[in-house]
TrEMBL record:
It comes from the Eukaryota. One of its GO terms (cellular component) is recycling endosome. This is LisH domain and HEAT repeat-containing protein KIAA1468. It comes from Otus sunia (Oriental scops-owl). It is found in: Golgi apparatus, trans-Golgi network; Recycling endosome.
Length: 1108
């Protein structure tokens, strides 16, 4: 019965076979062959053709894939093979949207069920047309791939074009099999499918012996032979071998991918560090005089950079591959890869014969920079070798074969973009894809004119190249330069830069500026120090775009890393000053990060760091201070001082490299660790002392010897350090003494400078060399209290800069005690000698900006609170005013207010009066209700206690404080306390018999009322206190100061008008009295009169200060 079923299926008598299957099923004798056949929908696609006459379609061998290799029964002729499909031969009508999917009879005749056809080998010359179910399955997988990889728009379009299919449901495809893996998994698994040595089929199909030639199994199906023990044993052996092959092949492909990935990373690193490792890295290898660039035939590799053959110091020849083709493994045929292993592939790649092309030599400048510094410098040239296109651009084919391979890799990415290049974004992407082709052709083309035209196209390829596109072009230019050598770079690439130096688009000029730095290692040294330097100088002086000038500065820094012409030193110094004075913060920042460190390295090699660069900057600062007695140019001071600060790491590296112990610094045994906080954080890698020295390990050894030398052996014979101690420090301390102590910005700048200097040179140096020099100048001792010569320096900026720049470098307990003792001594000496407190105030302001020092400052002030001298207690009270604004409210409540309350009951009235400004500042800044009430009670006691009725100085201080804090204080405190008490003080002042005191109080009252007039004042308060107070004040001014009286009359008049208007209409919002009541005429008179008054500038400024 099974034989009959097989014959019916072979002869395509499907209805008869179906009837037989139904009858057998009803009788309970189901045949597995028929069940499997009719349960597979794939067996019934394209079955609409007419069955052939004459009985059978022929043997299975004649039906496979268009009849290739089969014979019809009864005739000795071969079936006609299907032709290879081409675009010309495709019948597109069969795939139209009209639903007519009938196929050619010839195709129908040649089709067989899928279950049988899968056991046969497909002819490589014949492509079977896709079936509807296959198409639906592939459509589902393609749509799934598009969605997973964020091609959402493409997926939507794809769904619209296949509207008859539901892409969210696999069952809609129509196959009764589980959903297969996604496309990516199928692609990755493809390499595991191999062909066995002998083609076999299922015996139950009944294939003739001569039909085996056309058959092939699918990998993974277990082959079954004749059911003999030998056949079964052979089958098991074959399956076992296939499994081993599969495992080994998977492992091989995994290793090949890993090799490709690692070699790609090596390529990237070599592209980044090429100039350091192969051109100028030889500074540490004296035996290497030149670096030849040899070119090899393309067998997956491109350019080889080789050192000289003999390197006795390092033992053997160094060979560096510029780049390795990541596509080597994928280009190898499957048959070859099955019989090869990764090591053989690597041997094949590395065995390429050297080309006959002459080696390319680059000039090696006479410089001594460390490789680490060179690498950090070149890191500011951003290349783009970490992508497919970047990797392609960074290598240039050098032979006909490698050109073909490069075209094979690039054209598949270019052609689709050509077909789709309708949008600007697609055109830009296409332009980037063309870069490797343009560069390769420009390198290899024999005609100079054509090469020039190609490079012109490269620089004009993109109208306004963005950051990524410029990086791609720069990467290509560097690869071109490495390949052709310095002569052609000068003759072919530089003219392209020169042409675009004044281009109207800043992106193009930016490309020129970046190109000058990127190409610097590959240019002749004469051109580097002349033409390129002049181009960058012109762009720095003339270009108006900040980004362009920033790129110019970075390129100048790279040029300074290669230049070795001492005659260009002065030109470099002038460029440095121009860059430091640039109005753009970006340019100045780039100067400190790149240009200045690179220039300092060259200056160090020339011996000019200590004898020209630093002394010149110091002289410019001294000149500024001499000329700025009536107005210091703080911007220029900042410019020069920040430059000096950026030179500190270079100066310290010079001291270490020229120390007596340098020859002993050997990396042996365990290297000591450098503390993380040993050095201040550098603003760029080029200011890292470890980078300047060469390595962190070498620096650690030098630091250990440095500390030992300072602590035990001294500085004898150490010229570079003696210059710092005997010349630099005394000059700096002298300059500090000339600074105006009231200039907060200058004090801060010099404090930061000394802090960085001391932290860089270390704690031993600070304690033994820096502090003694300051202490000698300050001479803090009791016998100097009455000596004007000894106290003069205490009033200068030396005090705050020493306190905040030197004594705060290290924060151990001993250091903090030293700082506390110094501030206590200064406070005592200034108080007892009746000297100005500006230097102490500057110290408190600078230290108070850092919350870490608040407790320390409060400790210093408490020392003053309990001091036996009233002068010191008075100074402490005044210092609290400076500290309150930055201190947390908790500290104010716990430490400040108790101290002020203590001082407010001091036996000396001057001490009590000195607490009033601090109490006022608390009212202005604190929000705690309980704290405010305590302060309010204390101020009320000053105003209401009879013992203070005749204290003119106390009343003056209170009025000044009210005028300063009133506009910013809490409204309730202002309305309920400040304005009513000002009214009382104005009334009392009307009764004052001493005109001088009366005028003094009246003047301060006028300033207070002017400041408060900017605040919102309610109608009741205006009628009951503000207006009466102004009228009392006008009474005083009528007799003592008529010019004030005019202004007061105008203010009173406008206030009265405002009150009258409020009774007629509702007030519109909480407008400022000053803004709403003063007419234009009154404003003009008010301002004119204010200009004639002699009141303090600080108080007049409060007139126009609104509530914050």
């Amino acid at each position: 019965m099974d034989a009959i079923a097989a014959q019916l299926l072979r002869d395509q008598f499907l209805l008869t076979a179906l009837e037989l299957h139904t009858e057998l099923l009803e009788s309970g004798r189901e045949l597995p062959r028929l069940r499997d056949f009719f349960s597979n929908p794939g067996n019934f696609e394209r079955q609409s053709g007419t069955p052939p006459t004459g009985g059978a379609l022929g043997g299975l061998g004649g039906s496979v894939l268009g009849g290739a290799g089969g014979r019809e029964p009864g005739s000795g002729q071969l079936n006609r093979a299907g032709s290879i499909s081409t675009l010309d031969s495709l019948d597109f009508a069969r795939y139209s949207d009209d639903g007519n999917r009938e196929t050619d009879e010839r195709v129908a005749e040649n089709e067989v069920p899928l279950q049988e056809r899968k056991n046969y080998k497909s002819s490589p010359e014949i492509q079977e047309p896709i079936r509807p179910l296959e198409k639906r399955a592939l459509n589902f997988l393609v749509n799934e791939f598009l969605l997973k990889n964020s091609y959402k728009l493409t997926s939507i379009t794809f769904s619209d074009e296949n509207h008859d299919q539901d892409f969210e449901l696999w069952d809609d495809v129509g196959l009764n099999i589980p959903k297969p893996p996604d496309l990516l998994q199928l692609y990755r698994d493809f390499g595991n499918h191999h062909v066995t040595a002998r083609d076999v089929v299922d015996v139950s199909v009944g294939v003739e012996d001569d039909e085996l030639d056309a058959a092939t199994p699918i990998l993974g199906s277990v082959p079954v032979f004749e059911t003999t023990p030998q056949s079964i044993e052979q089958c098991l052996i074959v399956q076992k071998l296939e499994d081993q092959i599969s495992v080994l092949n998977t492992e091989k492909w995994s290793l090949m991918e890993q090799i490709q990935r690692l070699e790609s990373e090596i390529d990237f690193l070599k592209n980044e560090n090429f100039a350091v490792s192969t051109v100028y890295g030889v500074a540490s290898h004296p035996s290497l005089k030149q670096v030849p660039l040899t070119v090899s035939e393309d067998n997956g590799r491109y350019l080889d950079i080789k050192s000289s053959e003999n390197d006795n110091k390092h033992g053997n020849t160094e060979e560096t591959s510029l780049s390795l083709s990541a596509e080597v493994a994928s280009r190898t045929s499957k048959d070859d890869t099955l019989n090869s292993v990764p090591c053989k592939e690597t041997q094949k790649l590395s065995s390429c014969a050297p080309s006959t092309k002459a080696a390319v030599h680059f000039d090696r400048p006479n410089r001594k920079l460390s490789p680490a510094f060179h690498q950090a410098l070149l890191s500011f040239c951003r290349m783009s070798a970490d992508s497919r296109l970047g990797s392609e651009v960074s290598r240039i084919a050098d032979s006909e074969k490698s050109v073909m391979l490069m075209l094979g890799r690039c054209l598949p990415h270019i052609v689709p973009n050509v077909l789709l290049a309708k949008r600007e974004k697609m055109v830009l992407h296409l332009s980037q894809e063309l870069i490797p082709l343009i560069l390769c052709t420009a390198c290899l083309h024999p005609e100079p004119k054509e090469r020039d035209q190609l490079l012109h196209i490269l620089f004009n390829l993109i109208k306004r190249p963005d950051d990524e596109q410029r990086q791609m072009i720069l990467t290509g230019c560097v690869a071109f330069a490495r390949h052709v050598g310095p002569t052609r770079v000068e003759a072919e690439l530089l003219p392209q830069c020169w042409e675009q130096i004044n281009h109207k688009y800043p992106e193009r000029r930016l490309l020129v500026a970046e190109s000058c730095g990127a190409l610097a290692p590959y240019l002749p040294k004469e051109i580097r120090s002349s033409l390129v330097l002049s181009m960058l100088q012109q762009m720095l002086m003339e270009d108006k775009a900040d980004l362009v000038r920033e790129a110019v500065i970075k390129s100048l820094g790279i040029i300074m890393g290669y230049i070795d012409d001492p005659d260009k030193y002065q030109q470099g110094f002038e460029l440095l000053l121009s860059a430091l004075g640039d109005p753009s913060e970006r340019v100045v920042s780039a100067t400190h990060q790149v240009f200045l460190p690179a220039y300092a390295a060259w200056t160090t090699e020339l011996g000019n760091l200590q004898f020209h660069l630093i002394p010149t900057l110091l002289n410019k600062i001294e000149k500024l201070l001499r000329e700025g007695e009536h107005g210091l140019d703080e911007h220029k001071l900042h410019m020069y001082l920040s430059a000096l600060q950026s030179l500190i790491p270079s100066l310290f590296a010079l001291v270490l490299q020229n120390a007596p112990f340098t020859s002993k610094a050997k990396l042996q045994g365990e290297v000591p660790q450098i503390e993380v906080t040993r050095f201040p954080r550098p603003v760029s890698p080029l200011q890292d002392v470890a980078i300047i020295i060469g390595s962190r390990e070498q620096l650690a050894v030098l630091l250990q010897l440095y500390d030992y030398q300072l602590e035990h052996e001294g500085t004898t014979g150490w010229e570079t350090l003696l210059w710092v101690v005997n010349q630099l420090l005394p000059q700096l301390i002298e300059i500090v003494g000339k600074i105006n102590v009231a200039s907060t910005a200058c004090v801060h700048e010099f404090s930061r400078f000394f802090w960085r200097l001391c932290r860089t040179f270390g704690k031993i140096f600070t304690n033994t060399k820096v502090k003694p020099q300051f202490q000698e100048i300050l001479r803090l001792s009791e016998e100097n209290i009455d000596s004007t010569a000894g106290n003069g320096v205490l009033t200068k900026a030396t005090v705050p800069i020493y306190a905040t720049g030197v004594l705060t470098c290290y924060i151990q307990e001993d250091d903090r005690k030293l700082l506390v003792g110094f501030l206590e001594d200064v406070m005592t000496m200034l108080s007892l000698s009746h000297a100005p407190l500006d230097s102490l105030k500057a110290s408190f302001v600078e230290l108070g900006a850092n919350p870490a020092y608040h407790e320390l400052l409060l400790t210093v002030l408490w020392y003053g609170v309990v001091h036996t001298s009233a002068l010191v207690r008075c100074t402490a009270a005044r210092m609290f005013e400076l500290l309150v604004k930055g201190v947390h409210e908790t500290l104010v409540a716990q430490r400040v207010v108790p101290a002020l309350i203590t001082l407010s009951s001091d036996p000396e009235i001057s001490v009590r009066i000195a607490t009033i400004p601090a109490f006022g500042t608390i009212m202005e800044t604190v929000t705690q209700r309980e704290l405010l009430e305590r302060v309010k009670m204390q101020l009320a006691s000053f105003l209401e206690d009879p013992q203070y009725q005749d204290q003119h100085s106390l009343h003056t201080e209170i009025i000044k404080t009210f005028g300063r804090v009133g506009p910013n204080a809490e409204p309730r405190f202002r309305d309920e306390f400040v304005i009513p008490h000002l009214h009382k003080l104005a009334l009392v002042n009307n009764q004052q018999s001493v005109d001088s005191k009366r005028l003094d109080i009246a003047t301060h009252l006028f300033e207070a009322y002017s400041a408060l007039s900017c605040c919102f004042i309610s109608e009741d308060l205006m009628v009951n206190h503000f207006l009466p107070g102004l009228k009392c004040l006008r009474t005083d001014m009528e007799h003592l100061s008529p010019e004030h009286e005019v202004i007061l009359s105008s203010m009173i008049k406008e206030c009265e008008q405002k009150v009258e208007n409020k009774t007629v209409q509702e007030p519109q919002g909480s407008m400022s009295i000053a803004a709403s009541l003063v007419s234009e005429d009154t404003k003009t008179k008010f301002l004119n009169k204010m200009g004639q008054l002699t009141t303090s500038g600080a108080m007049l400024a409060n007139v126009f200060q609104r509530k914050k």
